[in-house]
Amino acid sequence: MAETRFLPNEAGETKRPDILSLLGILTFVNTGLFTLVYAIGAIGMMGISQMPVDEFVALVQEGVMQYMPEETGIQVEEIARILHGNGVTLMLIYLIRTVARLVGAIGIWRGRKSGFHLYAGAQIIGLFLPHMILPWNMLGVFGPLMTVAVTALYGSQLKRLG
Questions:
Q1: Per-residue CA distances from 152 to 16, 61, 66, 89 (Å)
Q2: What's the rounded Cα separation, in Å, for the pair 12 and 69?
Q3: What tens digit of pLDDT does each residue of 127-148 get?
């Protein structure tokens, strides 16, 4: 088993900080779930890409438009066409980002500063890389704020990582 070491705090304790334990558990649950979601999503997108694009767009519009105002139809069509053409790539981007976050979190869990750098890099790059495919207006606000907040919480313990 890999060695777990944390630098001593002001009291000289070298145990894992409680905040890292909490964040680690939350990150492991999140990345475990989304690794599965994005892997299944990539497989599903492979099937979707074999459908005629107009048939897929009509199917999405039929399913979504019963819950959305009619003026969002153009946006739904745009997203459906993006997913049809680039859905596999998009899911793989999300999957790689999620696995990198998991590997980084494992490093942090073990007390390694390199784990934080991998985690933070995956988080920040992972915010922007999907927008090589998706429109920038889909970036949103809550996701980036949560990304920065969690990364900052991990970073607040950087002095304890070796």
A1: 17, 39, 40, 29
A2: 59
A3: 999 999 999 988 999 999 999 9
